[in-house]
Amino acid sequence: MTPRALKTPPALAQAWAPLQAQWRRLAAREQTLVLLAGALVALALLWWLLLAPALLTWKTSAARHAQVDAQLQQMLQLQAEAQQLQQAPRAPAVDALAALRGATGQLLGDGARLVIAGEQATVTLQQVPAEALARWLAQVRAQAHATPLQARLTRSSAPGAAPAWDGTLVLALPPG
Q1: Distances from the Cα of 143 to the Cα of 108, 156, 163, angstroms
Q2: pLDDT tens across 83-105, in order?
Q3: Environment class of residue 94 by beta-carbon count within 10 Å: exposed (0-12), middle (13-18) or buried (19+)?
Q4: pTM above 0.85?
Q5: Which residues span the membrane (predicted)?
Q6: How many whole angstroms separate alpha carbon 16 and alpha carbon 8?
Q7: Closest by CA position to 94, among listed 144, 149, 136, 147
């Protein structure tokens, strides 16, 4: 099929007719200026709609890639920790309670009171340093296989002082 064989639809031909007549009335210099203005508008649209977003994505891709890699490493570390906890031999309930009592006395000191009821332990905290609480939670999870069920904590430290917590933690103890 040759280009001449293509027919313009009548409605389109009627719409183009006034534009073509106006184009023919323009001087050669004006036609050149209109073409240059159209090319400039087309280039601006090309930049704003296609190139600028792609360049921005390309520029930020390295930082985004590093961020996703860091998240992946953290997730892999958490997965390894979870697998290690799942594969760790379960200590008898007596040993778990001893580990819980020992960690509470050693890491939380006088700022914590431990009450054990069945397969749950409730720890009441008063002015416990945040760092000590974090270490205690990690140790209790690893050694006593206790998992937090509920936490009601409020920050109790003065502004500018080291963070401390008041409140209660309810832990599930391993069945025994």
Answers
A1: 16, 28, 25
A2: 887 787 766 777 888 888 999 99
A3: exposed
A4: no
A5: 33-58
A6: 10
A7: 144
